[in-house]
Amino acid sequence: MDSPNRPTPPIHHLSLKLILIPPILLAIATALSLFIHSDTNLYMLYSQCHSHARIDWLSRIPLIGPLACFLVSFFQEALLSPVRSKGIMSVVLSYVAGLLTITTVEGSRLCNKSAFLLAFPTATWLIFDLVGGALVWELVIIPAFFHRAKTVIQARRQGTTTSEGEAAAEPELVLGDPRHLSTLAESLSIPVSIAIGYILPSLLILLLPSDKTAVPIFLWLFFPVWVSLLHQGVRTGFLQVFKDHPTWPRPFHLETSLLPLVTTYAAPILLSLASHIYLIVTLFTHPRDDRQEMTLATTRFIMVNMVYVGLTVLYWAFIEAGWQTALVMLVTTVLAGPGAGVCVGWVWRESAVGVDWIGRRFGRRGSVIAVAVGGTGSRGGSGDRGEEGREGGNAPSEETPLLR
Q: What is this structure's pTM?
């Protein structure tokens, strides 16, 4: 396919230090905004947990009791009003489902297997969920992806050997199909693990009466652990069952396989659309805000965090894939909610950094150079090479799209 007539994404020509300046500024702005919007009610909430006045059984657990009680009480208060806070929190939770999906997908790509923070994101997600909020995205997650992107670009420019004739440190970034997921089993293990480990607990805390949510919220707080365990367990199970199957154990490219693509992203997109519609409807049918003072303080704190996460992710998409991907993400967010926006934007993003499945279906305007060395890559993970690859199209060049 021909290279599209589009600008090169900024990641290709800006230095890493320059790219990291906006996330640092966003982190400073996040800290200032959270300080400005902090409320004495939040301090009082922790004080009540410390004195065992709230959730007595939880607050008395040694070491972690007061903090665990505070976190559970915080989300209980955030979900307390039956209309407005439920609508806001449903949008927030569906957005987190979208973010969890894209980071799990990226961590499962062959090119990220040697990047520990990307391949094993459980720890960073736990810190984000329990204490760090948006600051974890701005100072840890996004810089880790940018650093990996720069490593991949350098590897593609360098080729399989250095200028001194030595072998490249990570030849897998140049040879084979780096944008492929490690196995077809990922197309089921990712959505199943997120559905059971995150979406189901999220629905429980949204739908249950507030006086019955203490245990569900406490378990929900550790969703990164449940998702990780389920992801590994389901993937291993499928590989054991289909170990003799010709396709299942082999790598495949998600964005060129329509059915796996739909199964991977369907749940967060549909949940985002449903929560988006619900929030808009309640804004018109219940124009009076029904949140009490404590609920207002907690939801405001959450909203500030998620706004800065959204800005950081939008910047991430722009830097690695260009303004078109960021625009698609933004427009979809307005129409169907942020969870749908990040998922649709991520599929579109692959047209800038990998194989463009949209271009294969809708013609030259959507097409890009395939990243797989030796051809356009295999459809559905077949691994077949095109004519161009067999006739010397193996060498990466400056025009080869970004791999990560």
A: 0.83
